[in-house]
Design goal:
By secondary structure, the protein is an alpha/beta fold. It has helices at residues 31-36, 38-44, 79-91, 110-115, 176-191, 220-230, 248-255, 289-303, 321-324, 332-345, 374-385, 390-400, 403-406, 437-442, 447-460, 462-466, and strands at residues 12-15, 48-51, 55-56, 68-72, 95-100, 129-130, 150-153, 158-161, 196-199, 238-242, 264-266, 310-311, 349-353, 468-472, 479-486, 489-496, 502-504, 508-515, 522-524, 528-530, 535-542. The strands form five sheets. An eight-stranded parallel sheet has the order 11-10-9-5-2-1-13-12. Strands 14-15-16-21-18-19 form a six-stranded antiparallel sheet. The chain has a three-stranded antiparallel sheet with strand order 6-8-7, with no helix packed on it. The chain starts with 11 loop residues before the first strand and ends with a strand. The structure holds 1-deoxynojirimycin. Residues 61, 64, 101, 164, 200-201, 242, 316-317 line the site of 1-deoxynojirimycin (NOJ).
């Protein structure tokens, strides 16, 4: 028997609290709202909740700008409610992982309020300050939200660094006092009984602004090893780092258990395949399935026996996968199930983003008034100024904006989709009458129950956790197929990625385990025609 980490068998569900469930009618989702839906998460069968930030925050970036790491924002509830949530989750066998956003704080955090006062303030070195160059910022570094990464501060006539919004000043990790503060915060939450951390843009903490190094700085791994020792290392928690800049070599460094850093990372290579290489996410290009397969296979192979993958299509920063790479019209159900099959069939820990399990789609974003997110709004005005056509800007935005993921969860076909009794902070997707959790729970063929089945399979079939991965037909332009192999068992996962039928062959028969279409119990794989978005998981019976 292999003694393995608990989180290898787990499935994570991400909650974006603002949009999940509002319990008090103020239009903003909250902790009590989450508590009222634990039965739903239990029904789905997930093991871990990744909770996007609920800390005190002025909300320049919806909670990713934190002004008190040990306090709960009143719009989300109280610390007692948070503790109750942790306890109630524990009673349901669910652990909570907290979002650790420590690349930067809010500019309203007491450290920054102090730091900006004077050059000799004790908190000054918690942040990164530079003199300007003849009235200009110190260098060309850009913010991920557009514009310069340097903001002039009147009080001391210096610039501070912010890789995101100017209300999100970057912390200076070279300062050991900062690192100690972070460990203190982490240990506070660990003592409260949480199950681990998701670490926001953690690959940026080792930045060297003077050399214009943003990600993967020289001391990054040192910081993580130190953090591991000082906080979660011996605690049997789970940690996942958000690392946009990771390639496979770096992926191994983070997640190799012997190095004692993190358990896994979110790497985004596959999520960049529908943008023009070297350009921004707004510069669209069609996805090539071949590339998608190759990227997934590369990561599966690279971390085999050396690290661990996280598996995800969605989060609060990405458009809805069924709209992005599936079909959110006539084949919404089939394609959502197909995409789920590809992901949950691979080796790693799967993550589900709220609403993905009912096939929620992108929402219509027709003009700048429809946008709530700082990133998409900034991009709109920036490109407008650069002379881009309105139509092109809005096309990029509807396809990629984070707003797509942030519309309220669609619970039922009643008032505001059952999300709130008040006025929602952001509008509900108009398709809620058709797509909602209540309807999904009433239909045994729904996307919800398919996810439930996938989660259940992972619990009972070690092959899904430990089995080796082998990509088949890497050059095929329409089929995504691979083998998992473990302990004399072989499973084939085969998916038609598109809405047109396509042929597939494999010299074996397959005992069907799960499919998004009705199947005979045993199918001959030697020459089959896959229906639109057809997905099959079967155990191979060699002929
Ligand atoms: C990544 C988070 O996922 C995103 O929502 C946020 O805007 C940036 N980091 C800055 O914290």
């Amino acid at each position: 028997m292999i003694k393995e980490k608990w989180w290898k068998k787990s499935v994570v569900y991400q909650i974006y609290p603002r949009s999940f469930c509002d319990s008090n009618g103020d239009g903003i989702g909250d902790i009590n709202g989450i508590r009222s839906k634990l039965w739903y998460l239990k029904e789905l069968g997930i093991d871990i909740i990744w909770l996007s930030p609920v800390y005190s925050s002025p909300n320049a970036d919806n909670g990713y700008d934190i002004s008190d790491y040990c306090g709960i924002s009143p719009e989300y509830g109280t610390m007692d409610e948070m503790k109750a949530l942790i306890d109630e989750c524990e009673n349901c066998g669910i652990k909570i992982i907290m979002d650790l956003v420590v690349n930067h704080t809010s500019d309203e955090h007491p450290w920054f309020i102090e730091a900006k006062q004077s050059k000799d303030n004790p908190y000054r070195e918690y942040y990164i300050w530079r003199k300007g160059e003849k009235g200009n910022p110190p260098n060309q570094l850009e913010s991920c939200f557009g514009g310069s990464a340097w903001e002039y501060s009147e009080e001391t006539k210096e610039y501070y660094l912010h890789f995101f919004h100017k209300k999100q000043p970057d912390l200076n990790w070279e300062n050991q006092a900062v690192r100690k503060e972070v460990w203190k915060i982490m240990n506070y939450w660990i003592d409260m009984g949480i199950g681990g951390f998701r670490m926001d843009v953690i690959d940026m903490i080792g930045k060297v602004p003077d050399k214009e190094i943003k990600e993967n700085g020289p001391r990054l791994h040192e910081y993580l090893q130190e953090m591991n020792r000082e906080t979660f290392g011996e605690k049997n928690l789970v940690t996942v780092g958000e690392c946009w800049g990771a390639d496979i070599e770096k992926g191994r460094l983070y997640s190799d258990p012997e190095r004692k850093e993190l358990d896994m990372i979110f790497q985004f290579e596959q999520m960049l395949l529908d943008q023009v290489p070297g350009k921004s996410k707004w510069d669209l290009k069609p996805l090539e399935l071949k590339q998608l397969k190759q990227v997934f296979a590369k990561w599966q192979d690279a971390l085999e026996g050396k690290g661990w993958n996280s598996l995800f299509w969605n989060n609060h920063d990405l458009p809805r996968i069924v709209s992005r790479w599936g079909n959110d019209k006539e084949y919404r159900v089939e394609s959502a199930k197909m995409l789920a099959t590809i992901l949950h069939g691979m080796k790693g820990t799967p993550y589900i983003y709220q609403g993905e399990e009912i096939g929620m789609t992108n929402c219509p974003l027709l003009s700048v008034e429809d946008l709530a997110d700082v990133e998409s709004r900034n991009m709109y005005y920036e490109r407008k100024q650069m002379g881009y056509k309105e139509e092109d800007i809005m096309n990029s935005i509807s396809t990629k904006a984070r707003d797509n993921a942030r519309t309220p969860m669609q619970w039922n076909d009643g008032y505001e989709a059952g999300f709130t009794e008040g006025t929602p902070w952001y509008r509900v997707n108009p398709n809620y009458m058709e797509i909602n959790a209540k309807k999904a729970l009433e239909d045994k063929d729904s996307i919800f129950y398919y996810y439930k089945e996938l989660i259940h399979l992972r619990k009972k079939e070690p092959i899904l956790i430990y089995g080796n991965f082998k990509l088949l037909y890497s050059e095929d332009k329409s089929v995504f197929a691979y083998i998992r192999e473990w302990d004399y068992k072989k499973w084939l996962i085969v998916c038609n990625f598109y809405g047109t039928p396509t042929d597939f062959m494999y010299p074996a028969r397959g005992q069907v385990i799960l499919s998004n279409y009705k199947q005979e119990p045993v199918i001959l794989l030697e020459n089959i025609s896959l229906r639109p978005y057809e997905a099959i998981i079967c155990e191979l019976i060699e002929t």
